Structure formats: structure tokens, C-alpha cells
Amino acid sequence: MRRREFLSWAGRSWLTALVGSACAVTGPGSARSEDSSQTVVYVPGYKPRAASYQGQSLLRHPRLNKAVPRGYDGPVTMLTRVAGPEEPLRRALFPIRGHAVSVRGGVGFFNSMNRDNMLSFDPESLEMISLVSPHGGDGWVGGGHGAFTADGRHLLATERRRYAPFSGRPSDHFGMITVRDPKSLKVLATFSCHGIAPHEIGVMADAKHVAVANYGSTQPPGVTSKDTLRHMVEPCVTILELESGRLVHKIHAPDVKNEIRHLAAHSLRRTMVIQARVGATGDDLEYLRENQEIYAADFTARPNTVYLPAPVLRLAAGGNATPRALPISARDPLLMRHGLSIVYDPAFDEFIATFPTPHCFMVFDGANGAIKRIVRAVALGLAYPSGLALHPDGQHYVVTGSWRGLYTFRRGSHDLNRQATSNPLFLGHSHIVVA
Q1: Pairwise CA distance, residues 433 & 319, whole Å
Q2: Cβ atoms of residues 303 and 278 within 8 Å
């Protein structure tokens, strides 16, 4: 199938039911109370080729693959919709190397990761609405994330230049933020993110600024192979004025060897950043030789690579000066490998972040970034905790295992609500959204 034919493909409606359940959330809370059975969790699935349904490969099942055009041989991502206890799971396959999902006001958005498409979908039926290219044509790819503006009228999507050997000038590799119509994904405006390989974008509490996590990495100079470790140039967080696209602050990582990947941005005094350091297989032996536990290979890492310890960062703002990025780390460096999802809980002034490689998540003090609690998720039966989102009931948050498992915890106490756990199969993911 030609690329032009693929991008003009229109999704068709479908409905499929796979037996599963999501228990209603109960328990004490303080913020507000809602009928949690109406809450829906959306979870991507990176590896649908690893599973079958009714004796067929997921990719070939006609009730699942209606959005995938005939003859298409590119990446496919499954999306799972987990709703109330009386509603079965819904799943759909999309022709995209999907990463993070955003849902708001009756529309969902799926950005691709380093690939040349992105799409919108109906959150109820999972019918694909629009499938489009990045704004700049073949030289651009999706950055993996998107965010709705505070009023929900517009969608902000990160877009990257295709990975290429470092030219010698960082600005040659800067990515963009595209402002789009949420349903049609028509581009309404664009502005530079002033960083290399932008990934997660967050709208700040004032609704006037956005924060962008920029990997800061390229391919090594003169090297075109995709199998090499990335060349680190300028990992940073950029703060942009939404109305004008103006760069307000650019905060560089203290250690250029760490990619800046994710963030939870509330204000300049309440922003925490997830870093990741990637090494070649074997580079982690100095940390693992003293490990007294038997461990399996980390399937969340790319082939021939490993995640190495990297601290999280807290932005410290003072006056009109550019905020500083202060590193925060657990005493055990093995716990600081592969930070992934992070959220800010304003009710308790806490940040919560998942670390799938060491099977844990951590709670950080919002004021000073101190680690308040480390939860060993694997001890609770949840491996590779990855997706993380606050529950709209104001009382709980949801953590999902990369491969399977949906667990609910009480905000503030971080106690597991056993009545609100389930074990659906997700097939590998990084982030979730609760709507």
C-alpha cells in the first residue's frame, strides 16, 4: 500500500467485547465523590503481534483490525478501553506506532512515536476519526505525546525531526509543537519547542504556558545506523508561552548523558522531570553484581540496551531567573532505572512516578522533592508498573502494569484498594489516561 493511500484511509466503526471487569472504586476520600463505574481507563498495547483472539492472530481478527487498511505492513498498536464493572473490555487495533493517549470532550488522540502519522478516535466506540501526517512532511515524525488546552478547544502535539546524525548545531534538530483541531487534526498553528526530540508536553496550571520534555539526543555525527546508542547533545525542559509560542525558560539537564523524557508541570515551583540513561548491554553490571535477587531481562528496554540509574529532577524557581534543575535520587541506584509516568497530586502536594525496570513507584514531596515513599509494586502482584493517572473521584489513582494488571491506590495514604484491582492483558505500554 502506498503512503498516500494509507494516509487517506478512513477508519470504520466496530465493536468488540472481550470478557473482563473493572471493579468500582470505594473508600474514604476528601476531594469529591463520583460514580467511579463511569470512569474509563485507556491503555495502549505495543505488542499485539504477541497475542491471539478466538484462535486467530489479533492482527487478522476482523472484529479488531477494522481501522487497519488491507495490505498495510507497518506498526500496529492495540488500544484497550476498561470501563465499569458491568461493561466488557473494548479493544481496537490502529495503524500506528502509538505511545501516549489523550482523551477530552468526546475525542481521543493517539500520537505516534518516531513515525509519520497520528490519529484521532471516538473514545466510546474506538472508531478512528482522522489519520494524518506530521505538519512538515517526510522530515518529521510524531513525538509520542499530546495534550489538550485548558478549555479543551485545541490539541497540542509534539513533533520531532527524524533522527539524523548531529549536524553540529542543536537548532538544526529542534522539534515543533503543532496546534490542531482535536477531531480533524487540521494544523491551526505551529511553533518551535526550542529543544531536540520533544516528547511529553504539559499545560501548566495557569493555562498560559506549556512545559516540554526534550530528549536532547540525535544519532552520532556521521552515523546513520539506528542500532547505535544515541548521541547526547542538549537534554532540556522548555517553558513556552502558549499564545505566542515564545520561549520563556530553557532548563538544561545537569548531566548531558541523561535524556529528559517526561514531566509533570503544575508551575515553576511544582514541576518534576523524569530522566532516563540508556547504555549498552553489560553497562549495568557494576550495579547488579551485588544484587541478591534473581531477575529477568527487562523487556521494556530496546534490544542490546539497558537502563542505567538516572535521578529525577525538581525545578527550583527563584524570581525571574531561569529555574534550576536539582537531582533527586534514592539511596539504592537500582531503583532509579527507567522512570516513566509521573503525575502531580495538588490535593496532597505530591508527585508520583513509576519505575518499571525495578518494579516500583515513588512518591515525592511537592515542596522539596524529597522521596516520601517507595512502593514495591511487584510485592503486590503488579510487575513493571508503567501507566499512572489520577482518578477523577479525587480519592484514588490508577497504576497499570506494562503487560497486564490494573491497580487502584488511595491518594495521600497510597494504600492499595484491593476491591478496585483487575488483571486485563495490555501487551506492553508506557502511559494511560483516565477519563
Answers
A1: 34
A2: no
CA distances from 171 to 163, 168, 176, 273, 310 (A): 13, 9, 11, 22, 26
The string of pLDDT tens digits covering residues 259-312 is: 999 999 999 999 999 999 999 999 999 989 888 888 888 999 999 999 999 999
3-state class (DSSP) for residue 76:
coil
How many other CB atoms are there within 10 angstroms of residue 12's CB atom? 9
Question: Cα–Cα distance between 262 and 428 in angstroms, integer?
Answer: 18
DSSP state of 142: E
3-class state of residue 175 by DSSP: strand
Please name every residue paired with 81 in a beta bridge, in sequence order, or none if there are none.
Answer: 42, 90
The pLDDT tens digits for 67-79 are 999 989 999 999 9
In the chain, which residues have pLDDT < 50? 1-37
pLDDT value for 225: 82
Diameter over CA atoms, the chain = 62
Residue 17 identity: A
- Give the three cell numbers for residue 135: 505538519
pTM, 2 dp: 0.90
Residue 159: which of 147, 145, 138, 180 has the closest Cα? 145
DSSP 86: T
231, 221 Cβ separation under 8 angstroms: yes
Nearest by Cα to 279 from 266, 288, 291: 288
